[in-house]
């Protein structure tokens, strides 16, 4: 069977999937037994599966479909670009109009000191690029000892060897002897999970101090950079306490250490600003981007390079021996450019900030009243709720992840994609979600929390 245009039913699709498809981040044996959910089409904020069910996509795919599904303009641009120039590379002194135009556009929409972009095919490739750029920068500065990158436990920076090493996910480190040398992890600013009796503000300062302690332990002359997501996404939408980023900024300035703000999720409007760095007033030296850059319509990523680093790499660097076949792929670049045009022309980021995010956050925080919910938090178009065993005492379930998975499965069955990270339920809907759709998301979430609560009580 090799013609997917034949009308296959769900069971047939699942059987074929089971036979040949090795899925990412999945227990493939268990998935094979259960059968994958097959998504066949999508429009706006809704997915449709192979049984014809309509599902509100509270995760915008994997945090990426910022402009929503079904925008024909992107398909048209891709079609035209494929006919004009489907592929050429940007190695060896060549370029092409889509990459040139997208680079110019990115410099326009990102913070002022970021005036160059290195194109990649994904967020992971962007972080591999970052590792090499940072070390190259310090080599060129005559400080080859400055190699170590400090990251955070439970961070997510991708799934390649460097990406997973920069990330702080223990289950990922367990596969393949990661992290690679020269990458260390400090405490994350996760008040609900790790703050104990401290106020969020006190805890934010403590988590920032962990950075200074690590710098002092390793020695400033050994530390190249600090990498962090402005808001940790895949780790469970960890919104740092208000004291965290100001203190981190001060520490990085005190010691001569670069800041890498991983904007793969926060970028392109997710926080209600164009970039999370603007939301938190950060001035990153390097800024990996992907996902919302093309709203996921085609794979493309990049690293925005700040003037401090770019000046050195350009002036003194000679050859930079790094790059990907698909760096600045013309069709992906044209689609990304069209995506940014839509974000700009339709004032999508401004609408998020002024209208839809305040409404989503107001409604989302009402979930804190539910007996199963210990905390509801969020910024812009991301949110998290913590499922707890005892609300008053902020005690979590012993078997972390069981209740979250239960809740996630209820959501799917009831027409909502909400992701579970352990017992933390998270959302990151398309930025174009409207008030009525937000109401629907909240109503479905409440219903699924009720169902989960009932199931947990029954044991
Ligand atoms: N960085 C962050 C912050 C991410 O959330 C992700 C993906 N979830 C990545 C990097 C990796 O991106 P990709 O999956 O495109 O390689």
UniProtKB/TrEMBL annotation:
Gene3D superfamilies per record: Aspartate Aminotransferase, domain 1, Type I PLP-dependent aspartate aminotransferase-like (Major domain)
CC cofactor: pyridoxal 5'-phosphate
Any GO MF annotation of the entry: transaminase activity
Keywords: Aminotransferase, Pyridoxal phosphate, Transferase
Family: Belongs to the class-III pyridoxal-phosphate-dependent aminotransferase family.
PANTHER family: AMINOTRANSFERASE, AMINOTRANSFERASE CLASS-III
Entry protein name: Putrescine--pyruvate aminotransferase
Underlying gene: spuC
């Amino acid at each position: 069977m090799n013609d997917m245009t034949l009308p296959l039913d769900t069971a047939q699709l699942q059987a074929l999937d089971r036979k040949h498809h090795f899925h990412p981040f999945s227990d493939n044996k268990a998935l094979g037994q259960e059968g994958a959910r097959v998504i066949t089409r999508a429009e706006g904020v809704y997915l449709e599966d192979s049984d014809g069910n309509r599902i509100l996509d509270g995760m915008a795919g994997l945090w990426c479909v910022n402009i929503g599904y079904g925008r024909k303009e992107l398909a048209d641009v891709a079609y035209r670009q494929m006919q004009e120039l489907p592929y050429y590379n940007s190695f060896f002194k060549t370029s092409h109009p889509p990459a040139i135009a997208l680079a110019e556009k990115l410099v326009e929409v990102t913070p002022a000191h970021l005036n160059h972009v290195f194109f990649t095919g994904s967020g992971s490739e962007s972080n591999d690029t970052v590792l090499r750029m940072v070390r190259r920068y310090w080599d060129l500065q005559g400080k080859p000892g400055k190699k170590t990158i400090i990251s955070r436990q439970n961070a997510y920076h991708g799934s390649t060897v460097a990406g997973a090493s920069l990330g702080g996910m223990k289950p990922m480190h367990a596969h393949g002897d990661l992290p690679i040398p020269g990458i260390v992890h400090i405490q994350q600013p996760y008040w609900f999970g790790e703050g104990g009796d401290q106020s969020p503000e006190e805890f934010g300062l403590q988590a920032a101090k962990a950075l200074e302690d690590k710098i002092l332990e390793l020695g400033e002359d050994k530390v190249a950079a600090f990498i962090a997501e402005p808001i940790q996404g895949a780790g469970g939408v960890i919104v740092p306490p208000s004291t965290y980023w100001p203190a981190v900024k001060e520490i990085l300035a005190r010691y001569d250490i670069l800041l890498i703000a991983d904007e793969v999720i926060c970028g392109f409007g997710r926080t209600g600003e164009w970039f999370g760095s603007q939301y938190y007033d950060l001035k990153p030296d390097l800024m990996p981007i992907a996902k919302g850059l093309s709203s996921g319509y085609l794979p493309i990523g990049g690293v925005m390079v700040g003037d401090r680093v770019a000046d050195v790499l350009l002036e003194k660097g000679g050859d930079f021996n790094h790059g990907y076949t698909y760096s600045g792929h013309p069709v992906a670049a044209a689609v990304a450019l069209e995506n940014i045009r839509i974000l700009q022309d339709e004032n999508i980021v401004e609408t998020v900030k002024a209208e839809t995010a305040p409404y989503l956050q107001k409604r989302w925080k009402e979930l804190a009243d539910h007996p199963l919910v210990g905390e509801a938090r969020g910024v812009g178009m991301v949110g998290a709720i913590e499922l707890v065993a005892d609300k008053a005492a902020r005690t979590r379930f012993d078997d972390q992840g069981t209740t979250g998975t239960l809740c996630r499965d209820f959501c799917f069955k009831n027409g909502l994609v909400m992701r579970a990270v352990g017992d933390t339920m998270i959302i990151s809907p398309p930025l174009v979600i409207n008030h009525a759709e937000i109401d629907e998301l909240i109503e479905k979430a409440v219903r699924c929390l009720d169902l989960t609560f009932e199931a947990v009580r029954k044991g």
